[in-house]
Amino acid sequence: MDRLHYHPLSPYSRKAYVAGLMRGEPFERAVIELGSGALQRPEFLAISPFGKMPVLETAEGPIIESTSIIEHWEDRGPRKLLPAGRELTARHFDRVGDLYLVDPVAALWWEAEGETAKNAPQTARRAWRLFEKQLSGRPFVAGDAFSLGDLGASIATDYFVRLGVEAPAAIRGWCERCFAVPEMKRALEEALPFVERLHPSARARA
After folding, report:
1. Domains and CATH numbers, the chain
2. Is residue 25 a contact partner of residue 73, using CB atoms and an 8 Å limit?
């Protein structure tokens, strides 16, 4: 059985976790304790050389990076997050979401110094404009169904809103649709205790 090393608070971890739930994949959960130094332990570095999560242990070897984990599962079929004929759109917005929403909000969340955290709200607004244009006339970025293109970006958007960055109305509506997906709702509920612990005001803002 696959083993997913992750933490509910991590947007990239949650991406992989939600995908596994949506696909009905059998996998063992291995929750990493934040602040414990677990990411730098030799046994973890043996499967994730960069000391990052999530990582999926499989019979064929470990897979790092959330999108690669999801693609690995999707290749097994049937596809749940890469709609037929709209795969490129889903993959494109997955990439945009990772680079311009997930990475910036992670820097902002952890109060990192540097340009990424400083420019995070502006970067998010630019990304949201792309998403707004794509969402015109459709509920999700790849059409009528929630897909890989919505996954990480909506998780990151929720974090931005919790940190006080105002999202456009169309983006808020899309985010609500994303979190109406049962697996998204479940993963959020599992993350909320950690959200509240690290940013007590963040829960109230959402």
Report:
1. 2-76 (3.40.30.10), 87-205 (1.20.1050.10)
2. yes
